[in-house]
Prior knowledge:
Helix content: 55-70%
Number of strands: 7
Largest sheet: 7 strands, mixed
Number of helices: 15
Strand content: 5-15%
CATH class of the largest domain: Alpha Beta
CATH architecture of the largest domain: 3-Layer(aba) Sandwich
Order of helices and strands: HHHHHHHHEHHEHHEEEHEHEH
Radius of gyration: 24 Å
Shape: elongated
Number of domains: 2
Amino acid sequence: xxxxxxxxxxxxxxxTEIQTARINIARKVNEAGIGMYWNLGKLLSEKKIExxxxxxxxxxxxxxxxxxxxxxxxxxxxxxxxxRFYERYCHVDxxxxxxxxxxxxxxxxxxxxxxxDDKEALYYAEKAIQxxxxxxxxxxxxxxxxxxxxxxxxxxxxxxxxLPEVLAEQADEMLKSSYNLGFLGLTQSVKEKELxxxxxxxxxxxxxxxxxxxxxxxxxxxxEYNGKEYFVDILLYHRNLRSLVAxxxxxxxxxxxxxxxxxxxLGLLDKLEKQPDENPSIGIILCADKDHLxxxxxxxxxxxxxxxxxxxxxxxTEELKNLVLKEIKDSNEEQADDK
Length: 339
């Protein structure tokens, strides 16, 4: 049995090394490509090539470059994108420049198209890098105005009262004031069980939305105590906090009784599941809406660490339809230009 355990540890370590190497190689390849696009854009900008009289130059340049380098995207449309990319970021804060330098090209094109404010662009670029957002997820966050929503919504929790100072700070960083579940593609209301099932079906997207460090353990996680059964909607583990994280989903607005139920679940998790070297379990209650003052009152005498956050779930049907049609149109145009 010890031999098997040793082998499992070796295998896991080897897989981690290979995955890390692959990620680093892909990142370096991407950075080299973005650097090339930046320099080509700089060349066109410094030579003052503009649409109109410069259209012929760019078209000819594209044709000649395709003959020499048929495997890279140098269509006229993409060359204009490169110039725009350089001019958009050549004078911004170096921190933003470093972020866009490691973003995939189509992510950058989306940011240029949708976001004009530098602070907002930095917010989305950092989140996309930290959480591994796909282009579709990034688009969804931009459409939901996550930058302004997160900036204005206060965080609701009792971490500073229920946890040691250092752990409370880490837990505060872990919790968001609002979560965007638009990746579920819902255009009509659903029941709590259906919402939970949708999240489990797209657990990879959901864990990315929660943030770095989360590992999925199970849904409807069974706890048995004193001859009775209890079920946590979703149970996760946070590697940095070294804490179990219980997540409860609520379709409607926040209600004070949700806190009591979560406090009870956390007590069971600490008694039945928490390992001796782990930190106290943490609860997150996701609601469609919450009143910050109501949450403060509900948490004031609770000794378990609990955070309450809102989620955005639905995109209006017409907006969703128009968004999808526009994305298909833009994608088809890019593919046609690159041929």
